[in-house]
Amino acid sequence: MSVDQWARAGGHDRRTTAGLGRAPVLAAADGRRLVPILTYHSVSDDPPEPIRRWSVTPARLRAHLAALRHTGFTGLTVTGLLACYRGERELPERPVVLTFDDGYEDFLLDALPALADAGFPSTLYASSGLLRDERSAADRPGRMLDWRQLGEVAAAGVEIGAHSHTHRELDVLSGREAAWEVTHSGQRLRAELGLPIRTFAYPYGYSNRDVRSAVRDAGYDAACGVKNAYSHSGDDRWALSRILVERDLDTAALTRLVTRPVLPVGRRGERPTTVGWRTYRRTRALVTAARGGAAPVARAGHVPVAVLDAELARPLPPLDPRRPAEVLVRLHGRPLGTVRVEPHGSLADVVTEQLGDAVAQHLAADALAPSGAPPGVPTQKAPSWPCRRPPTAPARCVSVVIPTVGRPRYVVELVRSLLDGDVAPDEVIVVDNRPADPATTQALHRDLADEPRVRYLAEPVAGASRARNTGLRAARGDLVAFLDDDVVADRTWLASVHEAWDTVPGVGAVTGLILPTELETHGQQLVQAYGGFDKGCTRRVFDLGEHRLAHPLYPYLVGAYGSGANAVFDRAALTALGGFDARLGPGTPTKAGEDLDVLLRTVLDGRAVVYEPAALVRHHHRTDDTGLRTMAYDYGIGLSALFVKHLTTDPHSLIAIGRRLPAGLRLLLAPDSTRNVNRRAAHYPTELTLRELLGIAVGPLAFARSAARRLRR
User: Fold this and answer.
1) Is 480 left (phi over 0), alpha (psi -120 to 50) or beta?
2) Using an 8 Å Cβ cutoff, are 125 and 161 in contact?
3) DSSP 667-709
4) Whole-model pTM?
5) Which has the least CB within 10 A, 191, 411, 497, 620?
């Protein structure tokens, strides 16, 4: 029942306010003083349809205010009401609190003048990410204020409160996402306005125990819900009861609402219907995600993040104090780790705190510092830690193969990064898997026509494996590297590959670290957080002997080896293995898995795979929100297709995988498995797990379709 229906159900005779005079004191049956906290949204004659129900016209708002003034009500802000509840000031005889949610521009244009004329204070709850000039992934429901206009509102005496950053249903988010929304919105408002932000309002009125705890931990004094009930001195300070004003609430109904107890009295705790509604919303979101619906993967609070590279033997790069930064920290070119520096934070302090031990170990190995306490970070201009290790001289000829489908700009950028590296490859082979589109050939001819080391090949049959194999057959180098067309090679990439190749005898492949080129959008941040590209900054070796992992699934723990987006192979050994399996990978029904398959076969063939973090490339993460969900689904298909391929084609694998099947299922499905415990700790979105599991279920059928398609050719 709407608020208007509640009011009319009380038997109001629909008289105008002219004959009411001063209103009686609003009280409950037990004598408790009741306070109506009214919640408005847009104030517009023609609001957007999605918010029309929760808007009022400017004329109706003025009529509401006139009725409140005529019946003797005194306006309070939310913090003023809290002061009354704490006994710091006397509660007026007829109090009313006017709140406005979201931060629509019409508050400044229409609501604020009406409030000023009527002499009522108000509280505006602004969603910081919805403001018009804020770079946010949030969908704006209407025309919003910008930061300058919000400053004008605050300067006019309106109390400003936080309403989350991207206005999501906080009670269905992970704990980390909800806490970020709560904390970041207050931080942004305080930083931009220079004012204390003391209270919070839950978007849609939805909260749960964890969200309310996050509000307390963020330092707010109180928070508002929407219960369509009266507030009172015993109300829950972390879910104050408010009354939602809808478009059909006329002046007569409003008058009865604030003068007679026609609504419930705010109570602590949640009604069973509230819990049931939350359960439904959570289930609906999960089902939508599992079916591949249009709803985005849980929209983590978004603010653009700077991506930087810091070499400790040189002066540290300057940081923009207004935005966080993700910094790769190196010493003498070797990655030590990535650190997150929050706005106004100190890079030197964060590096010393998080990577001090790694710095000390590196310097001790170079005989530049005694083993012991972590050193500080140099700030002087001259390098204080010169590298004492001689550079590795290339001893092998290297060919780089770049399969591509319609990304000419990225391809040119990648080729240039390779040729400009500290050690350049002997040849670069671009394999066009969509040669009917002339864009790639035109870009290469325009930008790299004078470079004899660059070759162009066409592979008209769709499939990443086919394109890779075409490049493998044409390669002349002792080593052949495969790089995806959406990466950029670091200057030290190939030199680090050469160094890693001599780590242990019998190396068959080297994989490397993959980091983002930028983290500007919400989608890019999701991919970085959950996409699995970053395997860390520690060199690891995988083989069937001394470097065998002590894991029940090894060597079939394929995700540990690295990624085919950045992998280098012994050309003769890879050719002997038959190259990449054309039944797997992008361009086939199996979607993925061809790179993990060939790394697994390298280990099963008795050779070592070395993960070398110094062999770094930067990846252009997809900018949209749907990319990660697609990635999770495709990875699931490719993973199960890979194992179906080994089960059906290799008797030895049939036995080996069969023995590991119980452990694999437990790792995949058991709530207490290391995989799922780690995902919970990282707040991995449940919908991504559902998409991955759906892909795993589809994988066997996808492999059968792919195999049948290959036989028909």
Assistant:
1) beta
2) yes
3) HHH-TTSHHHHHHHHTT--HHHHHHHHHHHHHHHHHHHHHHHH
4) 0.68
5) 191
